[in-house]
Amino acid sequence: VSLVLLLPILFVLCILIFVEDGLPVFFLQERVGERENKFRIIKLRTMKVGTPNLATDKLSSSGRYILKTGKILRKFHLDELPNLFNVIKGDMNLIGYRPSLNSQHDLNILRMEFNIFQNKPGITGLAQVKGGDNLSIRNKVKYERFYSEKQSLKLDFYILLKTILSNEKLP
Q1: What is the CA 109 to chain-centroid distance, rounded?
Q2: Element (H or E) spanning 10, and its range?
Q3: Which is it for strands 122-124 and 93-95: parallel, antiparallel or unpaired?
Q4: What residues form DSSP beta bridges with 27?
Q5: FRET pair for 2, CA 20 to 30 Å: which of 61, 68, 109, 161?
Q6: Measuring CA to CA, how many Å separate 110 from each of 67, 103, 132, 134, 169?
């Protein structure tokens, strides 16, 4: 239902990306998900065509790669809207841990150690509303473990509400 309601907004955002920097408007990237299985996450493209396929924090002068439209998409988490297709496909949940890149070895090792990968990743999660990229890897996994152990409808609503009210960028 959310996807159907958001399709007009998604369509407008795709046009804005296309006008600014052409095709493709979507960005596909391999991520690590449930049981350490790989899947392709779909996002709206926020970086210019030809940008090296690295985490933004690993790019030197990442600002020169980000589209003007991309800055707005990231600020309001709109680049994550196509993750709803991953939810429909069954690769992700609405709430969980953010799926990691293969190259995030330290994070993936801790997630294995604390059985985080037994669950599906999510579009948002407790670690995101508690600091996201500003958290250390250890603290991020601490929140993910807490969520995994205390998962409830009440906690999901709290995370969803905090995500909607937040203006901080999700990873």
Answers
A1: 19
A2: helix 2-21
A3: parallel
A4: 43
A5: 68
A6: 33, 13, 16, 17, 23
Q: How many residues does the chain have?
A: 171
Beta strands in the chain (DSSP E): 26-32, 38-44, 93-95, 122-124
Is the pLDDT at 32 greater than 70? The verdict is yes
Q: What per-residue confidence (pLDDT) applies to 53?
A: 74
pLDDT, one tens digit per residue, over 90-141 is 999 999 999 999 999 999 999 999 999 999 999 999 999 999 889 999 999 9
CB neighbour list of residue 57: distance below 8 Å, 6 or more residues apart: 133
* Chain centroid offset of residue 130 CA: 15
Residue with token string 């007009």 = 8
Does this model's pTM top 0.85? My answer is: yes
Rounded-to-integer distance, Cα 78 and Cα 131, Å: 18
**pLDDT, tens only, 36-89:** 999 999 999 999 999 987 777 778 888 899 999 999 999 888 999 999 999 999
CA distance 6 to 147: 27
CB count in 10 Å sphere of residue 141: 22
